[in-house]
Amino acid sequence: MTSVKQEIVLLGLETSGLTSGVYLSRDNQMLGEMALNIRNIHSRGVALFVDQLIKLTDLSLKQISAVVVSAGPGSFTGLRIGYSIAKGLAHALQKPVIEVPTLDVWAYQQGQTRFPVFSFIDAHRQEIFHAFYRWEGKELKRITDYQITAVESLPDLVHEKTILVGPDTDRFSRQMQHLLGDLAFFAYPIQLQLQGWALLQLGYQKFITEKFSDLNSCEPLYLRPFKGIL
Amino acid sequence: MTSKKVKSGSYLSQEILSAQQTAAIAAQFSSVVQVGEVVAFFGELGSGKTFFIKAFCQAAGTLQQATSPSFTLINEYYTAENLFIYHFDFYRLKNMAELQNLGLDDFFYDHNICLVEWADKILTFLPDRRWEVYLEFLPGQPDGRKINIVKKE
């Protein structure tokens, strides 16, 4: 009797920012992706892309091993759409959800480097969401918590030459260069779009170590405490 | 919309005597507000905030007529050129959870125009850079108003 190796098929969803992205990998190899960088498209685009991508790759939804969701921080509404679709699919297919913090993806897709990596996303009000990373061999290690900080406070955080990455690098580069001088390093080419392969590779690492999220309680990594007064 | 950016400070302070004059000011103001800007409206009930916004949207060329979003909290309008205008009304805002579920930052920091009635109810959530429009009654003048427009940076 021969044993058939079970393929690991991951479906990735990115809605944390401008990009509406749906990605598929099989055994950690990229199978396909569909993405649009158009405003207000998440609610119309993502479910359509899932359907199209599954059809075009001759797969069925039942073959998906897990749904990998870009967990934020980022757009409040975008993340809610991503999580709704991820949870809906996972529930219907009875498959696990894997959450990958979006800052991790940005740090990872920049590739291995000997410098520390500072991954950040615009939090508005002159604040940024961020985390620090270092490569140890072939493994990317996060060395700080996910935080939210005023951009002006960057000199308190960065003390050595650091690669700054994220979707808002272009917009903040001048201000950050001004604040940090030679310590700020923007790797060329500057990437402004989250890469599906990076999301799915990090998702794959979690899949094989069975780091699944609880379907009922998992929620986006919003980071900003809700602090209003009525 | 024009491409000319207005500096911070008082933009307009005027006493008007008719609704037509309010509409004219709103129409003129709509050509000054830039994509990505937020306009906060202050004024008592019946002071003409929604009327001002209707005229603003009409002049901006929205395909929908602006109506009060008192019960829906947000109305969405757009022009043939794909300019989106979001019209908020927080008069009936009940609790923080309602506000939390709106994801206001997604509106306030995107490429659209946000017009916010009863802005004093959500002051801590507004961007520091914003327009403020104040509408006050003029004593003895049913359609008379004092209109102040300020730009904050």
Give the key terms.
heterodimer, A: about 230 residues, alpha/beta, Nucleotidyltransferase, domain 5, 2 domains, six-stranded mixed β-sheet, five-stranded mixed β-sheet, 6 helices, 11 strands, about 30% strand, B: about 150 residues, Rossmann fold, seven-stranded mixed β-sheet, 7 strands, about 20% helix, globular
Topology, please?
The complex is a heterodimer of chains A (230) and B (153).
Chain A: E1 9-14, E2 19-26, E3 29-37, H1 42-56, E4 66-70, H2 76-93, E5 97-100, H3 102-109, E6 117-124, E7 127-136, E8 139-142, E9 147-150, H4 154-157, E10 162-165, H5 169-180, E11 184-185, H6 196-208
Parallel strand pairs in A: 1-4, 4-5, 6-10, 10-11
Antiparallel strand pairs in A: 1-2, 2-3, 6-7, 7-8, 7-9
Helix pairs in contact in A: 1-2, 3-6
Chain B: E1 9-16, H1 19-30, E2 38-42, H2 49-60, E3 74-78, E4 84-89, H3 96-100, H4 104-108, E5 113-117, E6 130-138, E7 141-152
Parallel strand pairs in B: 2-5, 2-6, 4-5
Antiparallel strand pairs in B: 1-7, 3-4, 6-7
